[in-house]
UniProtKB/TrEMBL annotation:
Gene3D superfamilies: Periplasmic binding protein-like II. It comes from Pseudobutyrivibrio xylanivorans. SUPFAM superfamilies: Periplasmic binding protein-like II (SSF53850). It comes from the Bacteria. This is Transporter substrate-binding domain-containing protein. Keywords: Signal. Belongs to the bacterial solute-binding protein SsuA/TauA family. Pfam families: NMT1.
Protein backbone atom coordinates (compact mmCIF):
# COMPACT_ATOMS: atom_id res chain seq x y z
CA UNK A 1 0.00 0.00 0.00
CA UNK A 2 1.39 3.39 -0.89
CA UNK A 3 2.62 5.76 1.78
CA UNK A 4 -0.20 6.92 3.94
CA UNK A 5 -0.97 10.61 4.48
CA UNK A 6 -0.80 11.75 8.07
CA UNK A 7 -3.88 12.90 9.95
CA UNK A 8 -5.71 12.14 13.14
CA UNK A 9 -8.09 9.20 13.37
CA UNK A 10 -11.63 10.37 12.78
CA UNK A 11 -14.05 10.17 15.68
CA UNK A 12 -15.96 6.95 15.99
CA UNK A 13 -19.34 7.19 14.35
CA UNK A 14 -22.54 5.20 14.27
CA UNK A 15 -24.85 4.16 17.05
CA UNK A 16 -24.22 0.77 18.58
CA UNK A 17 -26.75 -1.09 20.65
CA UNK A 18 -25.37 -3.75 22.97
CA UNK A 19 -27.69 -6.56 23.93
CA UNK A 20 -27.43 -10.03 25.38
CA UNK A 21 -26.07 -12.41 22.79
CA UNK A 22 -28.92 -13.94 20.85
CA UNK A 23 -28.97 -16.32 17.94
CA UNK A 24 -25.46 -17.62 18.70
CA UNK A 25 -26.31 -20.14 21.36
CA UNK A 26 -23.44 -18.64 23.30
CA UNK A 27 -22.29 -19.04 26.86
CA UNK A 28 -18.96 -18.44 28.49
CA UNK A 29 -18.29 -22.16 28.08
CA UNK A 30 -18.11 -22.08 24.29
CA UNK A 31 -15.93 -19.02 24.11
CA UNK A 32 -18.49 -16.43 23.11
CA UNK A 33 -18.30 -13.04 24.74
CA UNK A 34 -21.66 -12.40 26.41
CA UNK A 35 -22.57 -9.42 24.25
CA UNK A 36 -22.97 -8.81 20.57
CA UNK A 37 -23.08 -5.51 18.79
CA UNK A 38 -26.20 -4.96 16.70
CA UNK A 39 -25.69 -2.28 14.10
CA UNK A 40 -29.13 -1.03 13.14
CA UNK A 41 -30.05 -1.26 9.49
CA UNK A 42 -33.30 0.70 9.47
CA UNK A 43 -36.95 -0.24 9.07
CA UNK A 44 -36.42 -2.11 5.78
CA UNK A 45 -34.41 -4.93 7.37
CA UNK A 46 -35.22 -8.29 5.82
CA UNK A 47 -32.13 -10.32 6.78
CA UNK A 48 -29.36 -10.57 9.35
CA UNK A 49 -25.68 -11.48 9.17
CA UNK A 50 -23.72 -12.63 12.21
CA UNK A 51 -20.00 -11.86 11.97
CA UNK A 52 -17.64 -13.35 14.55
CA UNK A 53 -14.22 -11.93 15.33
CA UNK A 54 -11.48 -12.86 17.78
CA UNK A 55 -11.55 -10.82 20.99
CA UNK A 56 -9.74 -12.60 23.79
CA UNK A 57 -9.62 -9.33 25.74
CA UNK A 58 -13.35 -9.44 26.46
CA UNK A 59 -13.44 -5.71 25.74
CA UNK A 60 -14.96 -5.76 22.23
CA UNK A 61 -11.64 -4.82 20.64
CA UNK A 62 -11.59 -5.13 16.85
CA UNK A 63 -8.44 -3.85 15.15
CA UNK A 64 -7.29 -3.43 11.55
CA UNK A 65 -9.50 -2.79 8.55
CA UNK A 66 -12.43 -4.56 10.17
CA UNK A 67 -12.25 -2.30 13.21
CA UNK A 68 -12.12 0.82 11.03
CA UNK A 69 -15.13 -0.49 9.05
CA UNK A 70 -17.06 -0.93 12.29
CA UNK A 71 -16.00 2.25 14.06
CA UNK A 72 -16.43 4.54 11.05
CA UNK A 73 -19.87 3.14 10.26
CA UNK A 74 -18.99 1.48 6.95
CA UNK A 75 -20.49 -1.89 7.90
CA UNK A 76 -23.70 -0.20 8.99
CA UNK A 77 -23.94 1.86 5.79
CA UNK A 78 -23.17 -0.93 3.32
CA UNK A 79 -25.44 -3.51 4.92
CA UNK A 80 -28.26 -0.99 5.30
CA UNK A 81 -28.24 -0.54 1.51
CA UNK A 82 -29.25 -4.19 1.07
CA UNK A 83 -31.64 -4.39 4.05
CA UNK A 84 -29.37 -6.40 6.33
CA UNK A 85 -28.80 -5.98 10.06
CA UNK A 86 -25.21 -6.82 10.98
CA UNK A 87 -24.38 -8.38 14.33
CA UNK A 88 -20.68 -8.17 15.20
CA UNK A 89 -19.96 -10.91 17.72
CA UNK A 90 -16.73 -10.84 19.76
CA UNK A 91 -15.45 -14.36 20.43
CA UNK A 92 -13.37 -14.84 23.55
CA UNK A 93 -12.63 -18.43 22.53
CA UNK A 94 -10.82 -17.18 19.40
CA UNK A 95 -10.59 -19.35 16.27
CA UNK A 96 -11.85 -22.64 17.76
CA UNK A 97 -14.99 -20.90 19.05
CA UNK A 98 -15.55 -19.29 15.65
CA UNK A 99 -15.21 -22.70 13.99
CA UNK A 100 -17.78 -24.16 16.38
CA UNK A 101 -20.22 -21.33 15.70
CA UNK A 102 -19.76 -21.57 11.92
CA UNK A 103 -20.34 -25.32 12.09
CA UNK A 104 -23.57 -24.84 14.06
CA UNK A 105 -24.78 -22.03 11.79
CA UNK A 106 -24.91 -19.44 14.58
CA UNK A 107 -22.25 -17.40 12.77
CA UNK A 108 -22.36 -16.63 9.07
CA UNK A 109 -18.96 -14.97 8.64
CA UNK A 110 -15.80 -15.56 10.63
CA UNK A 111 -12.65 -13.44 10.85
CA UNK A 112 -9.99 -15.73 12.31
CA UNK A 113 -6.42 -16.92 12.08
CA UNK A 114 -5.28 -19.02 9.16
CA UNK A 115 -4.50 -22.10 11.29
CA UNK A 116 -7.99 -22.51 12.83
CA UNK A 117 -9.60 -21.56 9.52
CA UNK A 118 -7.67 -24.24 7.64
CA UNK A 119 -8.28 -26.73 10.43
CA UNK A 120 -12.02 -26.08 10.35
CA UNK A 121 -12.19 -26.55 6.60
CA UNK A 122 -10.10 -29.73 6.78
CA UNK A 123 -12.49 -31.11 9.37
CA UNK A 124 -15.58 -30.58 7.26
CA UNK A 125 -16.86 -27.07 8.00
CA UNK A 126 -18.14 -25.91 4.61
CA UNK A 127 -16.80 -22.38 4.19
CA UNK A 128 -15.62 -20.14 1.37
CA UNK A 129 -12.82 -17.62 1.82
CA UNK A 130 -13.75 -14.15 0.56
CA UNK A 131 -10.66 -12.32 1.83
CA UNK A 132 -7.11 -13.13 2.81
CA UNK A 133 -5.99 -10.50 5.27
CA UNK A 134 -2.27 -10.64 4.53
CA UNK A 135 0.71 -12.19 6.29
CA UNK A 136 1.43 -9.75 9.09
CA UNK A 137 1.39 -12.03 12.15
CA UNK A 138 4.74 -12.97 13.66
CA UNK A 139 6.00 -14.55 16.86
CA UNK A 140 8.35 -13.51 19.60
CA UNK A 141 9.95 -16.09 21.87
CA UNK A 142 10.30 -14.42 25.24
CA UNK A 143 12.36 -16.06 27.98
CA UNK A 144 12.34 -15.83 31.75
CA UNK A 145 15.52 -13.90 32.67
CA UNK A 146 16.31 -16.53 35.34
CA UNK A 147 15.99 -19.46 32.91
CA UNK A 148 19.47 -19.40 31.43
CA UNK A 149 17.97 -19.15 27.95
CA UNK A 150 19.89 -16.92 25.54
CA UNK A 151 19.03 -18.56 22.20
CA UNK A 152 16.64 -21.06 20.65
CA UNK A 153 19.21 -23.82 21.25
CA UNK A 154 18.85 -23.19 24.98
CA UNK A 155 15.16 -24.16 24.87
CA UNK A 156 16.19 -27.83 25.04
CA UNK A 157 14.74 -29.38 28.17
CA UNK A 158 12.93 -26.15 29.13
CA UNK A 159 9.24 -25.44 29.77
CA UNK A 160 7.99 -23.63 26.66
CA UNK A 161 4.36 -22.53 26.41
CA UNK A 162 2.25 -21.59 23.42
CA UNK A 163 -1.21 -22.32 22.03
CA UNK A 164 -1.32 -25.78 20.50
CA UNK A 165 -2.51 -25.80 16.91
CA UNK A 166 -2.17 -22.03 16.50
CA UNK A 167 0.24 -20.26 14.16
CA UNK A 168 2.58 -19.70 17.14
CA UNK A 169 2.89 -23.49 17.46
CA UNK A 170 3.77 -23.81 13.78
CA UNK A 171 6.43 -21.10 13.91
CA UNK A 172 7.89 -22.58 17.09
CA UNK A 173 8.47 -25.80 15.17
CA UNK A 174 10.25 -23.82 12.44
CA UNK A 175 12.51 -22.20 15.04
CA UNK A 176 13.35 -25.53 16.66
CA UNK A 177 14.00 -27.22 13.33
CA UNK A 178 16.42 -24.45 12.33
CA UNK A 179 18.52 -25.37 15.37
CA UNK A 180 18.26 -29.13 14.87
CA UNK A 181 15.64 -29.59 17.58
CA UNK A 182 12.10 -30.98 17.64
CA UNK A 183 9.10 -30.49 19.89
CA UNK A 184 10.24 -33.60 21.80
CA UNK A 185 13.40 -31.78 22.89
CA UNK A 186 11.43 -29.27 24.97
CA UNK A 187 8.80 -29.56 27.68
CA UNK A 188 5.88 -28.29 25.62
CA UNK A 189 3.15 -26.62 27.67
CA UNK A 190 -0.08 -25.91 25.74
CA UNK A 191 -1.52 -22.56 26.84
CA UNK A 192 -3.37 -19.65 25.32
CA UNK A 193 -1.21 -16.62 24.60
CA UNK A 194 -2.69 -14.74 27.55
CA UNK A 195 -2.05 -17.60 29.97
CA UNK A 196 1.45 -18.16 28.58
CA UNK A 197 2.42 -14.53 29.18
CA UNK A 198 0.93 -14.61 32.67
CA UNK A 199 2.88 -17.79 33.46
CA UNK A 200 6.04 -16.26 32.04
CA UNK A 201 5.65 -13.15 34.15
CA UNK A 202 5.34 -15.26 37.32
CA UNK A 203 8.32 -17.33 36.11
CA UNK A 204 6.39 -20.60 36.30
CA UNK A 205 7.56 -21.42 32.77
CA UNK A 206 10.87 -20.78 31.05
CA UNK A 207 9.69 -19.29 27.76
CA UNK A 208 6.54 -18.26 25.92
CA UNK A 209 5.87 -18.14 22.19
CA UNK A 210 3.33 -15.42 21.44
CA UNK A 211 2.32 -12.84 18.89
CA UNK A 212 4.08 -9.56 19.79
CA UNK A 213 1.70 -7.42 21.80
CA UNK A 214 1.48 -4.81 24.52
CA UNK A 215 2.26 -7.30 27.30
CA UNK A 216 5.28 -8.92 25.63
CA UNK A 217 6.56 -5.42 24.87
CA UNK A 218 6.31 -4.44 28.53
CA UNK A 219 8.01 -7.62 29.71
CA UNK A 220 10.92 -7.06 27.34
CA UNK A 221 11.36 -3.32 27.63
CA UNK A 222 10.49 -2.74 31.27
CA UNK A 223 10.92 -6.05 33.11
CA UNK A 224 14.09 -7.51 31.62
CA UNK A 225 12.63 -10.57 29.90
CA UNK A 226 14.77 -11.78 27.00
CA UNK A 227 13.49 -11.92 23.43
CA UNK A 228 15.52 -14.68 21.84
CA UNK A 229 13.71 -14.67 18.50
CA UNK A 230 11.48 -12.28 16.57
CA UNK A 231 10.21 -14.10 13.49
CA UNK A 232 9.77 -11.08 11.24
CA UNK A 233 13.50 -11.44 10.57
CA UNK A 234 12.86 -14.82 8.92
CA UNK A 235 11.50 -14.94 5.38
CA UNK A 236 8.45 -17.17 5.12
CA UNK A 237 7.89 -17.22 8.88
CA UNK A 238 4.61 -15.37 8.95
CA UNK A 239 0.94 -16.06 9.31
CA UNK A 240 -2.24 -14.18 8.67
CA UNK A 241 -5.96 -14.15 9.12
CA UNK A 242 -8.81 -15.10 6.86
CA UNK A 243 -12.39 -13.96 6.34
CA UNK A 244 -14.62 -16.89 5.49
CA UNK A 245 -18.34 -17.33 5.08
CA UNK A 246 -20.54 -20.39 5.41
CA UNK A 247 -20.98 -21.65 1.86
CA UNK A 248 -24.68 -22.39 2.36
CA UNK A 249 -25.26 -18.84 3.59
CA UNK A 250 -23.14 -17.39 0.78
CA UNK A 251 -25.11 -19.20 -1.91
CA UNK A 252 -28.32 -17.58 -0.64
CA UNK A 253 -26.80 -14.16 0.20
CA UNK A 254 -24.10 -13.29 -2.29
CA UNK A 255 -24.80 -9.58 -1.90
CA UNK A 256 -23.81 -9.86 1.76
CA UNK A 257 -20.28 -10.88 0.75
CA UNK A 258 -20.09 -7.91 -1.61
CA UNK A 259 -21.39 -5.49 1.03
CA UNK A 260 -18.88 -6.79 3.57
CA UNK A 261 -15.99 -6.28 1.15
CA UNK A 262 -17.19 -2.82 0.16
CA UNK A 263 -16.98 -1.83 3.83
CA UNK A 264 -13.45 -3.26 4.07
CA UNK A 265 -12.36 -1.47 0.89
CA UNK A 266 -13.71 1.81 2.26
CA UNK A 267 -11.80 1.18 5.48
CA UNK A 268 -8.62 0.60 3.49
CA UNK A 269 -9.17 3.86 1.62
CA UNK A 270 -9.51 5.62 4.96
CA UNK A 271 -6.31 3.98 6.25
CA UNK A 272 -4.47 4.99 3.08
CA UNK A 273 -5.54 8.60 3.54
CA UNK A 274 -4.77 8.68 7.27
CA UNK A 275 -1.25 7.59 8.11
CA UNK A 276 -1.81 7.25 11.85
CA UNK A 277 -5.23 5.57 11.66
CA UNK A 278 -4.11 2.10 12.69
CA UNK A 279 -1.80 3.31 15.44
CA UNK A 280 -4.49 5.61 16.84
CA UNK A 281 -6.91 2.68 16.77
CA UNK A 282 -4.38 0.62 18.75
CA UNK A 283 -3.94 3.40 21.32
CA UNK A 284 -7.72 3.85 21.63
CA UNK A 285 -7.92 0.17 22.57
CA UNK A 286 -5.73 0.93 25.57
CA UNK A 287 -2.32 -0.07 24.24
CA UNK A 288 0.83 2.03 24.01
CA UNK A 289 2.02 3.69 20.81
CA UNK A 290 5.44 2.10 21.29
CA UNK A 291 3.98 -1.39 21.44
CA UNK A 292 2.20 -0.82 18.11
CA UNK A 293 5.50 -0.01 16.40
CA UNK A 294 6.95 -3.11 18.06
CA UNK A 295 4.09 -5.44 17.08
CA UNK A 296 3.64 -4.05 13.55
CA UNK A 297 6.90 -2.39 12.50
CA UNK A 298 5.57 -1.96 8.96
CA UNK A 299 2.21 -0.59 10.20
CA UNK A 300 0.56 -3.18 7.96
CA UNK A 301 -2.21 -4.72 10.05
CA UNK A 302 -4.89 -4.05 7.45
CA UNK A 303 -6.73 -6.48 5.18
CA UNK A 304 -4.97 -7.10 1.87
CA UNK A 305 -7.93 -9.21 0.58
CA UNK A 306 -6.19 -10.61 -2.51
CA UNK A 307 -5.11 -14.23 -2.98
CA UNK A 308 -1.42 -13.58 -3.62
CA UNK A 309 1.01 -16.43 -4.16
CA UNK A 310 2.48 -16.08 -0.68
CA UNK A 311 -0.84 -16.31 1.17
CA UNK A 312 -1.91 -19.35 -0.87
CA UNK A 313 1.44 -21.02 -0.19
CA UNK A 314 1.01 -20.22 3.50
CA UNK A 315 -2.45 -21.83 3.57
CA UNK A 316 -1.03 -24.98 1.98
CA UNK A 317 1.87 -25.07 4.46
CA UNK A 318 -0.63 -24.64 7.27
CA UNK A 319 -2.62 -27.65 6.09
CA UNK A 320 0.57 -29.72 5.91
CA UNK A 321 1.55 -28.60 9.42
CA UNK A 322 -1.80 -29.72 10.83
CA UNK A 323 -1.59 -33.11 9.12
CA UNK A 324 2.06 -33.78 9.97
CA UNK A 325 1.53 -32.98 13.64
CA UNK A 326 -1.63 -35.08 14.03
CA UNK A 327 -3.75 -31.98 14.59
CA UNK A 328 -6.04 -32.87 11.69
CA UNK A 329 -6.57 -35.96 9.58
CA UNK A 330 -8.73 -34.06 7.08
CA UNK A 331 -7.79 -32.73 3.68
CA UNK A 332 -9.14 -30.33 1.05
CA UNK A 333 -8.10 -28.44 -2.07
CA UNK A 334 -6.85 -25.03 -0.96
CA UNK A 335 -7.07 -23.63 -4.50
CA UNK A 336 -10.83 -24.25 -4.62
CA UNK A 337 -11.47 -22.88 -1.13
CA UNK A 338 -11.41 -19.19 -1.98
CA UNK A 339 -13.61 -17.14 -4.29
CA UNK A 340 -12.47 -13.58 -4.81
CA UNK A 341 -15.08 -12.77 -7.44
CA UNK A 342 -16.97 -10.91 -4.70
CA UNK A 343 -13.93 -8.70 -4.21
CA UNK A 344 -14.08 -7.76 -7.89
CA UNK A 345 -17.78 -6.97 -7.63
CA UNK A 346 -17.20 -4.85 -4.53
CA UNK A 347 -14.49 -2.81 -6.27
CA UNK A 348 -16.70 -2.29 -9.30
CA UNK A 349 -19.70 -1.16 -7.25
CA UNK A 350 -17.59 1.28 -5.25
CA UNK A 351 -16.12 2.78 -8.41
CA UNK A 352 -19.54 3.10 -10.01
CA UNK A 353 -20.85 4.83 -6.89
CA UNK A 354 -18.20 7.55 -6.92
Amino acid sequence: MKKLKKTVLAALVGTFVLSALTGCGGTADNGLVDKEENIEAGSDVTREVNIGFVDTSGSNILLGSEGIARDNGYFEEEFKKIGVKVNLVPMSGAGPAINEALASGSLDIGILGDVPAVNGKANGIDTTVIAFNGLNNFIVISANPDSGIDSVKDLKGKKVATQKGAFMHRLLLYALEEEGLTIDDIEFVPMTAQDALAALETKSIDAAVVQPNDVSYRLAKENGFKEILFSNDHEGWAAGSITEIRTEYLNANQDVAVAYLKAILRANEYIEANEDALKEQWIAAGYSAESYDYAYPLHDNYSKIEATDDVIANAKKTLSFLQENDLSDGDFDVDSWYDLSYYGKAKTELEEGK
